[in-house]
Amino acid sequence: MAFGNLVLAGIFLQTMDFNAALKQFATLGRARARIENVCDGVSRWLVALKDDGELLASESEIVAPQSVVPIRELYLLPQRLEAGTAQALAPLSRRAKHAWLAAREVRARPSEAALAALASADLIVFGPGTQHSSLLPSYRIVAEAIGRSPALAKVLVANLRPDLDDSGGSVSELIYRALRFMGDPKNQRRSVTHALVDVTGPEAGGLPPGQLAGMSRWRGITLIWKDWRDPRRADRHDGVQVARELTSLLMQPELRCEPVQ
After folding, report:
1. Exposed, middle or buried: residue 229 (CB in 10 Å: 0-12, 13-18, 19+)?
2. Measuring CA to CA, which residue among 169, 157, 166 is closest to residue 198?
3. C-alpha angle 72-75-81 in degrees, rounded to nearest 5
4. Is-contact 195 223, C-beta < 8 A?
5. Which pairs from 48-53 meet CB under 8 Å and 24+ separation?
6. Mean pLDDT of successive 10-residue stretches along the chain, which has 261 residues
């Protein structure tokens, strides 16, 4: 386990308030950034449903080795899905499982701090990471705030390579999933304005472009194709190059996004 996670868990056990623990942890680590939780800190249990009806009953199952069948839906439940319940759901159809899970889902509320940050942001960056266990649920919690934000640019930094939760996926699927969980599948609210996409494809262990091959724009998103890899660690982004690109976008006044009323 990461040492930082152990420290954060210890602070939480003292405070029993995740958002308060996060602030203490940031102070302890002398973070130079202000770190805010996307939700109000109330606990939820993440469950996923795949296209073929397979149920992933916990976050640990979502990030574990699995079939290449795509994950279709995510649910935030107020309580852990017990093993007996998961076994009882197993023989049901995907539609029946979806109905059962959707009826019991309790959406997490966004934190006021996150809403204020999105409302005043000049730049929103949707960073790379584990999509279904971290990023996509977060997008859904603040979907409306993302669409309303007057940020000059809203930039998605695509993963360099597939994770276990999206094996067999592509860049086009990654971007589409992000938009869908933002509640804006056609990008009508301009939830994403740009995407930084790595040019190294599956031959180098990267994501295939999917339907975006050879395209510079898709659904109003400007696709910026470059080799974004760190020359010393091909599995990581070159942070300096990414930061320079993001800074250059802020210097272009024609990129202003009008907020949705």
Report:
1. buried
2. 157
3. 115
4. yes
5. 48/73, 48/74, 48/75, 48/132, 49/73, 49/74, 49/75, 49/94, 49/97, 49/98, 49/101, 51/94, 52/94, 53/92, 53/93, 53/94, 53/97
6. 92 94 93 92 94 95 93 96 94 97 95 96 95 96 96 96 86 96 96 95 83 93 96 92 95 58 42
Q: Which residue has the tokens 């449903």?
A: 49
Which position has the token pair 């701090």? 113
Interacting residues of 153 by C-beta distance below 8 A, sequence separation 6+:
123, 124, 193, 194, 246, 249, 250, 255, 257
pLDDT at residue 254, as a whole number: 60
- Quick one: how far is CA 255 from the chain centroid? 23
3-state secondary structure of 217: strand
CA-based nearest residue to 194, from 168, 170, 226? 226
Tokens 């971007």, residue? 175
Res 203: pLDDT: 75
| Phi, psi for residue 125 in degrees, rounded to 5 | -120, 120
Q: How many CB atoms lie within 10 A of CB 260?
A: 14
Beta-bridge partners for 233 = 230
Half-sphere exposure of residue 67: CA atoms within 13 angstroms, side-chain side: 12
pTM of the shown model: 0.90
Going by the DSSP 8-state scheme, the letter that residue 135 receives in this structure is I
Given a contact cutoff of 8 angstroms between Cβ atoms, the answer to whether 226 and 198 are in contact is yes
The Cα 8–Cα 35 span in angstroms is 13
Show the tokens assigned to 35: 């770190």
